[in-house]
């Protein structure tokens, strides 16, 4: 009789051979960097070994939010020593998506931390495409029997043509990914089907469509109270998976036709936006689009539409705000801030503009424009006493979707600007993403080697600011303006700010305070040992022509 152990050893070469023969195999290190891939992988994905080795596993997934959430979830599982099995949406070298059934397996160090990860995959793109085609023909979602999104669109268009009024209700299951994990053992289909059945029972004859893995749309002539009643219904009749009731949180947005929006696309857009608002406030509610968010939405879509033309016509401007260096009593840096004045929209503030540009992809164009204006100013400033630098705010989207480093250096070269004249301000959100994407840190390090300084902006507003300092190449921090209001009047704020300054100093970082508006704030900060000060007290942001530069 052979022992289990012996059998294991005997079969291993065969196992290895079979896996390699039938599956795509990818191996990464503990950071998610690709160590090896097999031939099957290369054939399906069109990657070449040279290009794929050293990339992160995140980059092999589709850029689409859902796919990124999946790998994020997979990676969390692996780090805690668990395997994962499911469908993954990957990206070929050409950017084209493909689908696989994936088994992800961790291999752990003795101390319980992740050592390596192994990914076994089978290409199921054809099956998925077939299912999509079937759904298109049949107009139904095969898993749940609900309408497909194609059917929904044509039905909405019919109802609009017939001038019927209705509520367009968009529902989504909150924390869907965590939920799936929670229900270890149940598959995704079972969960979705159970939820679909609850909806069918409550909404009865009102049309219901499934438009995403956990997103649904219901069309109903009834009012908000009826739709919101679904949450009570779910509470009274919870979902059971096996013998356990499933704690389910649902968020939703209701938009009315014809009062609120007049086409399928804008109904959907407005409903998604309403849902996002609900989620921001913690989820678990179904609300209708209020008159105010309506205005916001219309303004948003106007900004969205006009931005490209504005960029083309150079309608955006850049203002520069001085930063005063305490030791040398000189302005050593000017911060570039984007400005947009539009006839119809009035002033569009960067806080309004940047998130929209991030979601429509135009952030890259804005970034390039601001950077070249900044570089142009930096060249002029080089002649000045102390040759002041120019700092530019950067969005993480610029780094993660583009070869940012090359782009930047080539813009600087075009303008004849030395990289050492430039500083880049990054935010908490940026730092958070950089932690996950090795390629961002890599680009930052290369830029730093070329002479670019990095500043951690809005310091003190995020919970983990301190952590980022350990691994991001940062040389300055800027204490957020929220602390300035109560600085003079509140001893607690003073202690906090003083603590931040002390801490930065021990880390060898140059410390800046922003939003300084009064002499009292300025004096206090100087007495606490601040290195530089920025704010209306020193000077407001102004166009480059208004800066008093000699040459
Ligand atoms: P930020 O980087 O924290 O910029 C500082 C903001 O404070 C600016 O607002 C500035 O005008 C304002 N400010 C300056 N001095 C004072 C003061 O004494 N008191 C008060 N209360 N505020 C002061 P702004 O120009 O509206 O920019 C808002 C944010 O938009 C910026 O915050 C930055 O995160 C972002 N942003 C601006 N330009 C760009 C850009 O070109 N690219 C990217 N990615 N983001 C940008
Ligand atoms: Ca800034
Ligand atoms: Ca700031």
Structural summary, described in words:
This protein is α/β, with parallel strands linked by helices and 551 residues long. The protein folds into 3 domains: 2-124, Beta-Lactamase, CATH 3.30.450; 140-289, Alpha-Beta Plaits; 315-546, TIM Barrel. The protein is 45% helix and 24% strand. The strands form 4 sheets. Strands 13-14-16-17-18-19-20-21 form an 8-stranded mixed beta barrel, surrounded by 5 helices. A 5-stranded antiparallel beta sheet has the order 2-1-5-4-3, sandwiched between helices. Helix 8 crosses helix 9 (224-236) and helix 11 (291-312) crosses helix 12. The chain is globular and about 75 Å long. The protein binds ligand C2E and calcium ion (CA) (2 copies). One calcium ion is lined by residues 335, 393, 425, 457.
Helix amount: 40-55%
- Give the termini distance in whole angstroms: 92 Å
Structural class: alpha/beta
In round numbers, the mean pLDDT is 88
Cα-atom Rg, whole angstroms?
28 Å
Poorly predicted runs of 5 or more residues: 1-10
Shape: globular
How many domains in all?
A: 3
């Amino acid at each position: 009789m052979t022992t289990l152990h012996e059998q294991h050893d005997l079969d291993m070469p065969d196992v290895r051979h079979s896996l390699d023969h039938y599956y795509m195999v990818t191996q990464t290190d503990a950071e998610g960097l690709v160590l090896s891939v097999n031939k099957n992988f290369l054939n399906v994905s069109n990657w070449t070994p040279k290009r794929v080795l050293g990339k992160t596993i995140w980059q092999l997934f589709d850029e689409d939010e859902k796919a990124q959430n999946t790998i994020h979830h997979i990676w969390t599982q692996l780090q805690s020593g668990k395997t994962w099995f499911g469908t993954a949406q990957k990206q070929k070298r050409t950017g084209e998506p493909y689908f696989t059934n994936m088994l992800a397996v961790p291999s752990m160090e003795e101390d319980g931390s992740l050592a390596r990860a192994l990914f076994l995959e089978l290409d199921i793109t054809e099956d998925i495409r077939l299912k999509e085609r079937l759904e298109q023909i049949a107009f139904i979602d095969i898993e749940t029997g609900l309408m497909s999104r194609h059917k929904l669109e044509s039905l909405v268009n019919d109802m609009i043509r017939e001038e019927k009024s209705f509520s367009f209700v968009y529902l989504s299951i909150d924390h869907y990914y965590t939920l799936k994990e929670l229900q270890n053992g149940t598959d995704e289909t079972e969960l979705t089907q159970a939820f679909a059945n609850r909806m069918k029972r409550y909404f009865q004859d009102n049309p219901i469509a499934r438009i995403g893995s956990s997103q649904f749309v219901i069309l109903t002539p009834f009012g908000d109270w009826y739709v919101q009643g679904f949450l009570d219904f779910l509470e009274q009749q919870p979902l059971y998976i096996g013998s356990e009731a499933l704690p389910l949180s649902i968020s939703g947005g209701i938009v009315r036709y014809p009062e609120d929006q007049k086409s399928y696309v804008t109904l959907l857009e407005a409903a998604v936006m309403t849902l996002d608002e609900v989620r921001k406030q913690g989820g678990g509610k179904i609300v209708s689009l209020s008159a105010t968010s309506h205005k916001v939405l219309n303004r948003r879509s106007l900004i969205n539409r006009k931005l490209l033309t504005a960029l083309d016509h150079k309608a955006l401007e850049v203002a520069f705000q001085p930063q005063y260096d305490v030791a040398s009593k000189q302005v050593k840096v000017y911060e570039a801030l984007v400005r947009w004045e539009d006839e119809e929209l009035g002033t569009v503030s960067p806080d309004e503009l940047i998130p929209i540009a991030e979601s429509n992809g135009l952030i890259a164009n804005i970034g390039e424009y601001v950077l070249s204006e900044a570089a142009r100013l930096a060249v002029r400033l080089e002649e000045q006493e102390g040759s002041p630098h120019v700092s530019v705010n950067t969005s993480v989207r610029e780094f993660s979707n583009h070869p940012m480093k090359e782009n930047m250096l080539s813009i600087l070269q075009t303008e004849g600007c030395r990289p050492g004249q430039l500083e880049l301000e990054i935010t908490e959100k940026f730092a958070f993403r950089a932690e996950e994407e090795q390629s961002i840190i890599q680009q930052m390090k290369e830029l730093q080697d070329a002479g670019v300084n990095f500043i951690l902006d809005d310091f003190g507003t995020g919970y983990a600011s301190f952590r980022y300092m350990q691994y991001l190449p940062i040389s300055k921090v800027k204490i957020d303006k929220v602390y300035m209001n109560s600085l003079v009047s509140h001893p607690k704020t003073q202690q906090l700010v003083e603590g931040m300054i002390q801490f930065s100093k021990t880390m060898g970082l140059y410390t800046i305070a922003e939003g300084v508006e009064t002499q009292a704030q300025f004096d206090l900060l100087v007495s606490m040992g601040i290195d530089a000060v920025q704010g209306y007290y020193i000077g407001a942001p102004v166009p480059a022509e208004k800066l008093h530069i000699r040459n």
